[in-house]
Amino acid sequence: MIIDDSMKFCNLFAQMIKEADLSNVKFYTALGIKKPYFYDILSGKVNPPPPERQIAMLQLLRPKPEQIALFFDLTAQERNEVPADIAQKLKNKDLCK
Fold this sequence. Notes:
The chain is built from seven helices and no strands. By secondary structure, it is mostly helical.
């Protein structure tokens, strides 16, 4: 997927929370993170969270299918990592053969 350089994870994240009809407090409490860290993610002051947390976020947000790929692509781009969904598949040693 080609990502526009102006697109940021924090913007997609805020939109997904709104679409999930979750309050910020309910979201970060359910996710088990502290308020300051949540707002740092939301404002783009810190990199997106690590892969395990990304998956937990998606479980709470229940996004549209097209948002899932974008979510993983943006987090990977900003973290300078392989997308979490691809990394999970690579852990399967049978697939790697």
